[in-house]
């Protein structure tokens, strides 16, 4: 019961944050709503027993990636977004489409619901467990992502450098 | 989570009492850190520091607090109102939340109940503290942006860039300690440092070969808390007061308190991670058994805070490019080398 | 105890919000944030399925997604800064010419 209540609370916060992301016109407000979404998703991860992921979600997503976004918005001094004709068409078609789409998916999922439930914290995502998998079974993907990160760093440096 | 022999009601009551005590002690410590800073920096610069209010100026923090409360709370025009108010709250609440994971001593027995001397312990405590510090960056960045002033914006930009950069070095410097202790729980990390070699060298992490990590941690912590020599975000001589230029009265006081309580948290963390937390000689009657660990812990924290102030009275400020190259070209490689060497030694030993 | 379909519904709604933001926003940074929102929604279903099948690999996948998102954010924001420097705008509709 407590699990369901907490799930609903954080789920509602996440959805409201996501809708606020779209509704706000200024990018910095959107960025902060996204931080709220990420924080509540971290809480959902904790509810599922993925404690390491929950902490990493806050540190990496909310604490590093989103700070980078806020930093860029501050640096470019970006103002409120402007509407064009194309975006109005997108709004007219997009919002009903999104509502219909998500209701259809939700209906299908709840209909297909077979009574299978996610037990609270039965799968315990400790740092040890994730580390074992990461450095044994998934060693090659791990190394490849490290190369990806390296390339991304170099790419970012090259792109953002002022041409002299 | 109720643990051991505690019922839910006693657990809740004990927690509330602990929260009240810890908050009171923390806020008092914050106030008196300001006093100590003014006093010590005064003596370093051949001045007296505060002397007028109370003996040795001991009531100065009280006077300062009253002054902050009664000053006019000015909200400049053209600020982004919501974020302008949110920013100091975020900064202060995040720095106060971080303290709830710090253990001040081992558990004590009160009326047959085993009560741990920390508000809460989780097995990802260290990660939670890192997460809270990374959220605290928003307080500074938003303050700079929402003030709609060039000095604030520059201060906020500098602060966020600096805090992200040094967080990398800070996080990596902790990895060595985590490899040695094998746990994220702060209580567990202290437990892993009990005991001595040859009867007199304590088994602290700093003596287990983590002195480079300790050095990196201290450097990064100074930058994270925006203290001299890394106080670029609020450099008075160039940016007026950096990100809190436009703040007055209690809102400014909130940033001020956040900065000093971050200092206290960082000092607590340094003593737990590297200097063995509350470990130390314990003797005498049971009451001393309970109080001496807290005393040893407070002594270490006081030492770190004194070093903070000492550094402030001694060192000049870095230039911005020096600050960045120091983080990325010196601290980061050093931290990675430390992680690799520690991992290698631990792997070879096991 | 929460049925797994609830988690999937939440994930679907968040993903739909991400898609919608991607379609209707006219600011490159917000569009980019919508992509991050979609990635987050997918992560949630990964974690829910990991819990459902009792397999930690699902959580490891989330880890990889985060790494890729971090790399993407670094490069993407660098591109946005480069575009802003040459065109002085963040509206993708105004960035429709191949030459300046």
> Could you tell me which chain pair has the largest interface and how many residues each side has?
A-C, 85 and 69 residues
> CATH H-level name of the domain at 1-80 in chain A... which superfamily?
NADH-ubiquinone/plastoquinone oxidoreductase chain 6, subunit NuoJ
**Main sheet strand line-up of chain B:** 1-2
Q: Average pLDDT value of chain B?
A: 83
Counted by DSSP, the helix tally of chain A is 6
Rg calc of chain A: 20 Å
Number of domains of chain B: 1
Runs of chain B in which pLDDT lies below 50 for 5 or more consecutive residues are: none
Radius of gyration of chain B: 21 Å
- Globally, the shape of chain B reads globular
Fraction in helix of chain B: 55-70%
Structural class category of chain A? mainly alpha
- Give the terminus-to-terminus CA distance of chain A: 62 Å
Please identify the oligomeric state.
Answer: heterotrimer
How many H/I helices of chain B?
11
**What percentage of amino acids of chain A are in beta strands?**
under 5%
Contiguous runs where pLDDT drops below 50 for at least 5 residues of chain A = none
CATH fold-level assignment of the domain at 1-80 in chain A? Four Helix Bundle (Hemerythrin (Met), subunit A)
Could you describe the largest sheet of chain A, including whether it forms a barrel? none
Q: Please, what is the average pLDDT of chain A?
A: 84
Describe the overall structure:
The complex is a heterotrimer of chains A (164), B (350) and C (100). By secondary structure, chain A is an all-alpha fold. Chain A has a domain at 1-80: Four Helix Bundle (Hemerythrin (Met), subunit A) (Up-down Bundle). Chain A has 6 helices and 1 strand. The radius of gyration of chain A is 20 Å and the shape is globular. Chain B has one domain (76-349). Chain B is globular. Chain C is mainly alpha-helical and 100 residues long. Chain C has helices at 4-24, 28-53, 57-87, and one strand at 2-3. At the A-C interface, helix 1, helix 2, helix 3, helix 4 and strand 1 of A face strand 1, helix 1, helix 2 and helix 3 of C. Strand 1 (117-118) of chain A pairs antiparallel with strand 1 of chain C.
